[in-house]
Amino acid sequence: MPARTLLKKLKEALGEHIGEAWVPRPHRAFFTVKREELHDVVEALVKRFDIRHLSAISGVHTGEEIELLYHFWDYDVCFTVKIKLPRHEPCIKTLTDIVPGALLYEREVHDLLGVEFEGHPDLSPLVLPDGWEEGHPLLKDWSPPEEG
Amino acid sequence: MAQRLVIPIGPQHPALKEPLGFRFRVEGERVLETHIRMGYVHRGIERALQERSYIQDLYLVERICGICSHIHTTAFCQGVEELLGVEVPPRALYVRTIVCELERIHSHLLWLGVIGRDAGFETLFMYTWRDRETALDILEEISGNRVNYAVNTFGGVRIDLTSTQIESILGRLDYLEEQAHYYLKLVTSEATFVVRTHGVGYLSREDGRALCVVGPTIRASGVDRDVRRDDPYAAYEDLPFQVITTTEGDALARTVVRVKEVIESVRMIRHALHNLPEGEARVRVRRRIPPGEVISRVEAPRGELIYYIKSDGTERPARVKIRAPTMANMVAMPHMLKGAHIADIPVVVAAIDLCIACADR
Fold it and tell me: What is the least distance, in Å, from the CA of B147 to any CA of chain A?
């Protein structure tokens, strides 16, 4: 199904939840949702559209906000659901109850950007060492600890 | 009543060449629960990419992995090319694809040796690693290197194929195809191997989908999914090939899928060499990358590899996110190991074809 058709279908079903939406090229689609609605939107994707494959979660620190991009794969389209979290209160409900494949992706974003995923079963360090207290390395204002 | 124990294995251990920590909770000979600790080869590459120029990043992403290095640069290059809006010459796309498939062949043959060794069938290891040299020799002949080929660059490829090279590759492909057919017969009929892999590490279609598993691992569980066909890149749209799937979902099925993929890869390379377009192998591109964001996806030997690249118009990327296929497949491992015999752990772990360096970055 072309990206435009898929986006149209999703808009018809989830109309009020979908904010801005765009198709930059064939096989790609983006749309934004509010952070408190993300869980419901993804639940609808899984249960009503049988879209289960979460490819990745990208986190980007953009000054006052942290953007999270959830990349999904449905047949020939890779579409991205974008949400924004305030830098000083970066928390969001976990998706692991509906997409078990998000377990490690959420842990990585927690490590590197400090996003709290409410309800995640285990947010222990994934790529950072045990006992790491030097902050979250992918925040723009982070700098490596002094050596020695 | 057997006693419950926790067995720690790793991060340095005999089964894998890369560091990965396991804690198995077992009862008697059965695994009840698996806890995985990764991060021992985390090098902070995503952060490092933000602090270097795009062209420096190209060399850094090539070094994320020592096996599938070319696929990382392919994903990165096509993302940057999309940001630039350049059209890559068809000849370059073909050369890129040929190297991608040669890489798949050497990666799959390497893996076949590893699973052979872990299943206690070392002869298979000796055979496949001998034949893998044929693929590596081709790569060395065309690029000068055995693993980090440095073939890709923004706007095309740095090497071109001469007609003598094409003849020489075609000759050696016949040998690789013949050997792959032999391995297919071997792994499905040799009792030593079948008894260690049949029914081991089972993953159902539903669980595989829910856990977002990718690559040969999910194709062996009956999910027909391959980026090369679903989201064609490089020259894949022009090449006839079959996406190999099977429904058994065990370690044997994963082996069969990979061996058949080697055969498909040989055919794709042959077709690409016979139909190699004439013309330039690269175009010059601007140094400054316009602002924007792209998602670049490719089918690495281990499955879907996805790059998210965000540019803010400066000489360095604002963000590069890399999700390697092993990261996606790792989550299914505790699931496959549930109820397994302790003696089967190496086979189950190897059957996923882990690349820890890719997953940790």
Answer: 26
Two structure tokens written together for B342: 């302790």
Residue B3 CB: number of other CB atoms within 10 A?
7
DSSP B304-358: EEEEEEEE-SSSSEEEEEEE-HHHHHHTTHHHHHTT-BGGGHHHHHHHT---HHH
Angle at the Cα of A56 from the Cα atoms of B304 and B15, rounded to 5 degrees: 60
Q: Which two tokens stand for residue B219?
A: 């194709």
Give per-residue pLDDT as tens, B83-94: 999 999 999 999
B215 pLDDT above the threshold of 90: yes
What are the chain A neighbours of B361 within 8 Å (beta carbons)? 127
Q: Measured between beta carbons, which residues in chain B are less than 8 angstroms from residue A100?
A: 210-212, 331
User: A70 at the B interface (CB within 8 A)?
Assistant: no
Instruction: With beta carbons less than 8 A apart as the criterion, state whether B42 and A128 touch.
Output: yes
Q: Tell if the CB–CB gap between A27 and B231 is shorter than 8 Å.
A: yes
Residue B335, CA distances (Å) to B29, B207, B210, B331, B349 in order: 17, 9, 12, 8, 11
Q: Tell if the CB–CB gap between A103 and B331 is shorter than 8 Å.
A: yes
pLDDT tens by residue, A25-44: 889 989 899 888 899 889 98
Partner residues linked to B300 by β-bridges: B303
| Interface check B47 vs A, CB under 8 A | yes
Global ipTM: 0.91
